[in-house]
Amino acid sequence: MVRKDYKAKNISDAKELAAKELRIPKSKRGLLAIAPAYDEESGDFAGWLAFFNGKKLEIKNIGSIYQ
């Protein structure tokens, strides 16, 4: 299986991307959990983790965290 690099500018984009990639029906999108992800070495913000129904998706941040 080929692993994709998922990228988003903000949390709204990350949630939309996760819903699409994890194939979440509109009626279940309230069950999608988004959590911040931090770099293990530096502790800086790196992106988001999306969780739904036992599946996890890592999404990298490509925007400013101060937007």
Brief overview, please?
The chain is an alpha+beta fold and 67 residues long. It is 16% helix and 36% strand.
Q: How is the biggest beta sheet arranged?
A: 4 strands, mixed
Shape: globular
One letter per element, helices H and strands E, the order comes to EHEEE
What is the subunit arrangement here? single chain
How far the N terminus sits from the C terminus, by CA atoms, comes to 34 Å
By DSSP, the count of extended strands is: 4
Strand order of the largest sheet: 1-4-3-2
Q: For the residues shown, what is the average pLDDT? A: 89
Helix share of residues? Answer: 10-25%
Low-confidence stretches: none
Q: What is the count of DSSP helices, taking H or I runs of 4+ residues?
A: 1
Strand content: 35-45%
Structural class call reads alpha+beta
Structural Rg: 12 Å
Q: How does this structure look, described?
A:
The protein is an alpha+beta fold. The mean pLDDT is 89. A 4-stranded mixed β-sheet has the order 1-4-3-2, covered by helices on one side. It is 16% helix and 36% strand. It starts with 5 loop residues before the first strand and ends in a 6-residue tail after the last strand.
